[in-house]
Amino acid sequence: MNTPRFLMLTGLVLLAGCAANPSKWPQTVDHVDLQRYMGTWHVIANIPNIFERGKVATADEYHLRKNGDIDITYHFRKGFDLKPDAWHGKGWLPDKNNAAYWKVRIVWPFTSDYLILALDPEYRYVMVGVPSRKLLWIMSRKPAMPEAVYRQYVAKARSLGYPVDQLRRVPQQPNQVGLPGYQ
Predict the structure, then answer these.
(1) Cα(17)–Cα(47) distance, rounded to whole angstroms?
(2) Quick one: which of 60, 104, 105, 113 has the fewest CB in 10 Å?
(3) Measuring CA to CA, which residue among 167, 109, 112 is closest to residue 136?
(4) pLDDT category, 51, cuts 50, 70, 90?
(5) pLDDT tens digits, 78-103
(6) What CA–CA distance (Å, rounded) separates 117 from 175?
(7) pTM value?
(8) Number of domains in the chain
(9) Domain of residue 142, CATH code
(10) For residue 9, is it within any domain?
(11) Residue 152 is inside which H or E element, if any?
């Protein structure tokens, strides 16, 4: 893909997260301990977008910088038989008192909103979305999530107005490729 087309598509995907009226945004969690949130989150399911579609063994990794910004690394493979790859980006809190709402940038100058919509009290599972409700991720500290927990997060996403019929699981193990409901 040529660079101008890539940047245009990146902008379109990231702008999907830009909703004009924050009062109509889905409700985020009340509190996030940012230090505790840092680390690796395996993507269990998402509403696929052009950049993540077809990727396997995906995970987001977050590291807090001394200045309060967040280094973001998106780990993925294009197939289990191919080498791992990664994209690097940055996140920051527009309001230092609200760690449930971030801005993220993977490709400059495009930014997107990042809303933490559900978070397990033990920080084992999380659900993140964008205000437009067009993108959603359900993630786990491990490459697997109990089915009952997954269903709870899907129900929560539905209650927030996300199109859960578009959710697809991300293969974290080779034996998951091609299974119903997976990308």
Answers:
(1) 13
(2) 105
(3) 167
(4) confident
(5) 999 999 999 999 999 999 999 999 99
(6) 30
(7) 0.88
(8) 1
(9) 2.40.128.20
(10) yes
(11) helix 147-159
